[in-house]
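Standup, Tuesday
Yesterday: got the pipeline producing structure tokens again.
Today: sanity-check two examples.
Blockers: none.

Example 1:
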Amino acid sequence: MPVILITGASQGIGAAMAEAFAAEPEARLALLARNRARLEGVAERCRRLGASAEVFPCDVTNDGAVAETARTILDRWGAPDVLVNNAGRFEPGDALGTTPDAFRAQVAVNLTSAFVVTRAFLPAMVARGSGHLFFLGSVASLKAYPGGLAYCAAKHGVLGLARAVREDTKDRGIRVTALLPGATLTPSWDGVELPPERFMPPEDVARAAVDVYRLSDRTVVEELLLRPQRGDL
């Protein structure tokens, strides 16, 4: 009965991840995000797919909230078999217009939260000697875009974090994968006047994660780059 924990699970790629992993036999899903109502909707869809799903409203930029939520999940289900660090946010801003507070806010939700959540669950995963960590980076982890200063900096950091955790845990039974999707049709793109077919569906990113998870424990996909067929936007 695998335990799958997903942050930012209330919409977009996180919700798609939840539904994709819900198809795993006897899956137990721990769904984290700030919005309880949207989380409940995702959890109900997962239950209809046969999974056990519980919601844990949590602001992953709040260290205390993460620690409390982690204690609850670990006491109830033990160490997760899969931990998906998906929580994130994009706010536009260039090198001249981005304020220090705006920069810190995007680093907090896109990068620091992934470290804090990982740190809360990793000891139990290491003690068990197994588990799969996913870090949601981006094409912006590899290249910079104009008008996305803080987001690009944070997503570069996510890839560095994943690589460092991989080096620290590869002899301890932990698999680590950085997913690097390009433009994906999520609420982050609301208001952009482009046809849906120009974007990847979030279900494709989720399917890729599940396929990577299903590999034997003798193999790990360290980094997986996904792009729309017609390239970046």
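Example 2:
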Amino acid sequence: MGADVHASSAKETTMDRKLWETGLAARKKTLGADYVEKSLSTADEFNSEFQDMLNEFCWGKVWGDDRIQPKIRSMMNLTMLAALGRMHEWELHLNGALNNGVTKDELKAILHQIAIYAGFPAGVECFRIARKVLAEREAKK
């Protein structure tokens, strides 16, 4: 049902299909195809338009802008999401940052930056999540 709802909402909105496709590709590359496909397949009448907005504007227009490399954009996202206290999204984007080439050593430096500028409680929480994510990724190898 999700794909049908998604397709009908795309017809009802003025959407730049090229940006939408660019966004879908960037979103899958960063967050993983399984995660994105699940988000799209579970879209319904209530949130399918929002999924389109994510693909077109967030991932197509912004992430599709090649003036900032995906790795750098991921680093920026980690710091902003930490400062905003959006830890669920932080965990998701940590995986994305690692997919985009952020190294473990770079991650430590990012976490130190977060702790200084967003506060030590944010740094503690981000380190906790990072250790969990790194362990999960290591276990999958």
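Quick observation on example 2: The chain has two domains: 2-62, 70-140. Residues 1-10 have pLDDT under 50 and may be disordered.
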